[in-house]
Design brief:
With about 325 residues, this protein is an alpha/beta fold. It folds into two domains: about 240 residues, Aldolase class I (TIM Barrel, Alpha-Beta Barrel), CATH 3.20.20.70; about 90 residues, Up-down Bundle (Chorismate Mutase Domain, subunit A), CATH 1.20.59.10. It is built from 13 helices and eight strands. An eight-stranded parallel beta barrel has the order 1-2-3-4-5-6-7-8, surrounded by five helices. The chain is elongated and about 80 Å long. The N and C termini lie far apart (about 55 Å). It binds phosphoenolpyruvate and manganese (II) ion. Manganese (II) ion binds next to loops.
Length: about 325
């Protein structure tokens, strides 16, 4: 559990937030010293001035401390000051030049470093950032999922992109994985919901923004919880485990999965059969100078599968999107 304010603003705010968080099971106290802001002119952090405030948090409340680094200079200041953990922000992890600069600056240190997902939904870019740190010899590296920038208006500040997080989990099951529901949700009321959803990914921990007086915060005011709010959220979260201790439940789940795996193979076989028909159809169209894409035909396919979906209580939009992918592949095959 990593918790603390978005930004270190004053010594009193940092110490008061830490004091209220004491005893809540917070493993690391966070506060941003250098803040990457979208628009110039907003509060950009107090910088190195907050280092002694953070050191007081560790000394007086026994909480390890962490902050965001974006340049070599930040790394050097933080390593000198004995920060226990550093994280790399979403705007920085998207930039290989900066990632390399940070990896070079961190070389030889044994500090823990967590890499937030880049703002754009790109698993390779995210893992590339991790790889640069690993190549610099860092051993304690993990990631933080905070969601992705989106042009569309969505409920959350950042689109969760769960499938991207899941893909990263699949590729690197042993990479420590944290979730930042605060930047994902973007409003305090939605943070618990985003945190619960993240827990379903069987994550290793949460990073949550907590401020002793969120309404007065100089950055991310609407998404920060009060320490009390954090406590309430922690009590309400259901921590699930990947496996049940009950052998009967484990057996029942294994049975379902076997059945599902067998069905998945049949689905693939059906897809291959369907593609074979597409190929024949493609040749017929070519030989007879007929167009490949025919809107009426696609409409008929949708009607057919939606009618079948209704008889089996399947959601039509789900079936429609599955067939849209199948249809695209089929068109490619005929081209
Ligand atoms: C932060 O943690 O305060 C922050 C700026 O996060 P992100 O890089 O996820 O926007
Ligand atoms: Mn923030």
């Amino acid at each position: 559990m990593i918790a603390g304010p978005c930004s270190a603003e004053t010594e009193a705010q940092v110490l008061e937030t830490a004091r209220q968080l004491r005893g809540m099971g917070v493993d690391y106290f966070r506060a941003g010293l250098w803040k990457p802001r979208t628009t110039p002119g907003y509060f950009e952090g107090v910088g190195a001035k907050a280092i002694p405030w953070m050191q007081r948090v560790r000394r007086e409340f026994g909480m390890p401390i962490c902050t965001e680094v974006a340049f070599r200079e930040h790394v050097e200041l933080c390593l000198d000051a004995g920060f226990d953990l550093l994280w790399i922000g979403a705007r920085t992890s998207a930039n290989p030049f900066l990632m390399q600069e940070l990896a070079d600056a961190l070389k030889g240190s044994d500090v823990t470093v967590l890499v937030k997902n880049p703002i754009n939904p790109d698993v390779d870019l995210w893992l590339g950032a991790v790889e640069r740190l690993r190549r610099a010899g860092l051993e304690k590296v993990g990631v933080i999922h905070r969601g992705f920038s989106s042009y569309e208006k969505i409920r959350y500040r950042n689109a969760p992109g769960w499938q991207i997080a899941l893909e990263l989990r699949r590729r690197c099951p042993d990479l420590p994985f944290f979730s930042d529901p605060s930047h994902m949700a973007g409003s305090a009321a939605l943070v618990p919901e985003a945190a619960q959803h993240s827990l379903e990914l069987d994550i290793d921990g949460l990073m949550v923004e907590v401020h002793c007086n969120p309404a007065e915060a100089l950055s991310d005011a609407v998404q920060q919880l009060t320490p009390d709010g954090l406590l309430r959220m922690l009590k309400s979260l259901h921590i699930r485990s990947a496996e049940s201790p009950d052998p009967a439940v484990r057996k029942a789940i294994a049975c379902c999965r076997d059945e599902m795996d067998a069905l998945d193979v049949r689905i693939v076989e059906h897809l291959a059969d369907r593609m074979e028909i597409s190929r024949r159809l493609g040749e017929l169209k070519k030989d007879n100078n007929l167009s490949i894409i025919q809107a009426d035909r696609w409409a008929a396919v949708v009607r057919n599968v939606c009618a079948a979906a209704r008889t089996r209580d399947l959601r039509e939009d789900f079936v429609r999107s599955v067939f849209s992918v199948i249809h695209d592949a089929s068109i490619d095959e005929q081209n």
